[in-house]
Amino acid sequence: MKNRAETPEEKSMTNKIPEKLWIHLMVDFITKLLLVVEKNVILVIYDRLPKIAYFVATIKGISAKGL
Q1: How many structural domains comprise the chain?
Q2: 8 to 4, 17, 18: CA distances (angstroms)
Q3: Would residue 35 count as lying in a domain?
Q4: Residue 11: what pLDDT?
């Protein structure tokens, strides 16, 4: 069985850039926490493309504009 020869273009192919970046985000809230430094909710944002999670301490009832 012979190995297949790869062209330089095949070796240097990069990942495709998604057309809609927002489809790779997941957002959720962790609620009913004890009040600490006037914050009682954690907003969790998970970006599935680079596999990074962001945690934002906030208060219950905050609007998107407030974040």
Answers
A1: 1
A2: 13, 20, 24
A3: yes
A4: 61
